[in-house]
């Protein structure tokens, strides 16, 4: 079973990434779904989606959890019954979870694709990217910023939050592999740490809310 990568962030927080290479049948090994998740699973048409969904349950097992330890709220946000924070992502054949006992966390994996150039203006001031060396660098950076905003959205969890208007990701160098971000929404300012890594044409971004 290909657990692809684990990152221990600190004593309370870590993440794990799975590279989905198994068949659906193999992924059922040692997995049982709650009635809620089984019903969702039954409605999934794509086998890639079903395999990704099952692989998340193997990532949960790395932390000693089963699907029965997970509940979803009305917005689809996952929570652990023991009160720890969790965030989940899947993109094509990569899936990931981040868990923290102390910090609100979010995670997002995205495939690096040209398509992001077309939607960039919807989530970031695109003119700021024109100084980058080439299109490949622009795609990399946009994918990181998009992943950061998705991760933050997963933490913040308010439907009205606009990626363009309410979330600001500070500029960064690729080699720093980290940055910070702020959300200003409904008169409230909150601060976040952002980290990112790139592998096999994918970008994984994770975020944690600063405790003040
Ligand atoms: C919910 C959302 C964040 C999911 O992100 P995604 O990139 O489509 O998909 P991912 O695979 O990374 O994440 C899916 C997981 O996010 C989690 N999730 C779903 N809704 C969530 C929410 N409201 N809050 C936190 N986490 C959520 C779930 O765990 C889900 O996986 P699961 O149901 O299999 O457990 C995204 O669809 C969304 O609504 N984004 C905000 C709105 C937006 O896109 N605005 C665009 C502005 S240009």
Automatic annotation (TrEMBL):
UniProt KW Transferase keyword: yes
Alphabetized SUPFAM superfamilies for the sequence: 4'-phosphopantetheinyl transferase (SSF56214)
Residue span, 4'-phosphopantetheinyl transferase domain: 105-199
A molecular-function term among this protein's GO annotations: transferase activity
Keyword S-adenosyl-L-methionine part of the UniProt annotation: no
InterPro entries named among the record's database cross-references: 4-PPantetheinyl_Trfase_dom, 4-PPantetheinyl_Trfase_dom_sf
Pfam families hit by this protein: ACPS (PF01648)
Keywords, comma-separated and alphabetical: Transferase
Domain of life: Bacteria
Gene3D superfamilies given in the database record: 4'-phosphopantetheinyl transferase domain (3.90.470.20)
Name of the featured protein: 4'-phosphopantetheinyl transferase superfamily protein
């Amino acid at each position: 079973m290909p657990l692809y990568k684990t990152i221990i962030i600190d004593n309370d927080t870590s993440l794990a990434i799975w590279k989905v290479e198994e068949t659906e049948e193999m992924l059922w090994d040692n997995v049982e779904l709650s009635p809620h998740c089984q019903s969702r699973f039954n409605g999934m048409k794509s086998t890639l989606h079903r395999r990704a969904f099952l692989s998340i349950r193997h990532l949960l097992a790395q932390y000693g959890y089963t699907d029965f330890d997970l509940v979803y709220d009305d917005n689809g946000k996952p929570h652990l019954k023991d009160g720890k924070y969790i965030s989940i992502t899947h993109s094509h054949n990569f899936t990931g979870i981040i868990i923290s006992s102390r910090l609100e966390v979010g995670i997002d994996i995205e495939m690096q694709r040209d398509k992001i150039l077309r939607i960039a203006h919807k989530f970031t001031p695109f003119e700021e990217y024109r100084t980058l060396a080439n299109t490949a660098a622009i795609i990399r950076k946009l994918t990181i910023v998009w992943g950061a905003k998705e991760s933050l959205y997963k933490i913040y969890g308010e439907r009205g939050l606009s990626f363009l208007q309410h979330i600001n990701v500070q500029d960064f160098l690729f080699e720093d592999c980290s940055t910070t971000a702020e959300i200003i929404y409904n008169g409230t300012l909150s601060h976040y740490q952002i980290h990112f890594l790139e592998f096999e044409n994918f970008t994984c971004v994770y975020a944690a809310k600063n405790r003040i």
